[in-house]
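Reminder to self: tokens first, then the designed residues, so the page reads top to bottom the way the pipeline ran.
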């Protein structure tokens, strides 16, 4: 069986041809993507800060809410939810999920934390303050990334499709196809939605795409490969994954699976 979240190069070879938060209006400042017709804006990174990150964390999702940073990690028997104090980056809460679950993306909407699972077709939910378990929801297919706007959830499953989900029932409201030059952009992974712009890690690439959620068209690309040079003495490092937007500072927090660092960055148009 191909282990999607491992570091197998085979998957990359087979697929080389292709591969949150919207409740913060008017906080984007220079993060906003100037959308021009048929133009994809290329971005470079401005690294503002470098933070420690445990190589035990097989990062599947990041989220910032109420002055806290939340991280969801994967692997069966090792999947966790972590809550950090955003100022000190000290872990305040460390919760293991069921050993049969492979944890995936996380997001927080209305003080409820949603955590997808890879193949279990189950979304786990928690009280975001206490991380006490609440309800579970079932869905079809794989679970990869998840984000939200003011009232709906948005999920990825490794394809080019983003499902729009009604939180109370977890029913799919509609599906958005993400495209670049009319071609599908596959392997969309961790997600972050800011107003109408969807930021997504592309699995097995050090690339974040920015798509207009209204049209599904890619309007920006962010090459984050330079961060690899910052990962000194980090032989465990795997794929980049994890995007969280801080609506107070308008900065992004990004990292990867088993990376020994997390980066506070801005995305600057070239």
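Designed residues (270 positions):
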């Amino acid at each position: 069986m191909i282990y999607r979240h491992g570091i197998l190069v085979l998957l990359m070879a087979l697929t080389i041809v292709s591969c949150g938060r919207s409740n913060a209006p008017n906080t984007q400042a220079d993060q906003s993507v100037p959308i021009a017709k048929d133009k994809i804006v290329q971005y470079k990174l401005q690294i503002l800060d470098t933070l420690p990150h445990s190589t035990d964390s097989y990062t599947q999702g990041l989220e910032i809410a109420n002055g806290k940073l939340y991280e969801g990690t994967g692997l069966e028997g090792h999947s966790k939810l972590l809550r950090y104090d955003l100022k000190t980056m000290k872990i305040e809460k460390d919760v293991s999920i069921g050993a049969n679950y492979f944890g995936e993306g996380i997001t927080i909407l209305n003080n409820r934390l949603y955590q997808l699972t890879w193949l279990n077709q189950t979304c786990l939910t928690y009280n975001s303050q206490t991380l006490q378990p609440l309800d579970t929801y079932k869905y079809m297919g794989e679970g990869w990334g998840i984000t939200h706007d003011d009232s709906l959830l948005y999920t990825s499953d490794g394809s080019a499709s983003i499902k729009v989900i009604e939180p109370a029932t977890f029913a799919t409201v509609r599906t958005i196809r993400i495209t670049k030059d009319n071609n599908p952009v596959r392997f969309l992974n961790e997600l972050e939605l800011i107003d109408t712009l969807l930021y997504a890690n592309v699995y097995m690439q050090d690339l974040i795409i920015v798509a207009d959620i209204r049209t599904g068209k890619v309007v920006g690309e962010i090459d984050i490969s330079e961060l690899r040079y910052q990962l000194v003495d980090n032989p465990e490092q795997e794929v980049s994954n994890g995007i969280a937007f801080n609506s107070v500072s308008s900065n992004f927090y990004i990292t990867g699976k088993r990376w020994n660092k997390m980066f506070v960055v801005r995305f600057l148009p070239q």
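Confidence is low (pLDDT under 50) at residues 5-30, 32-36.
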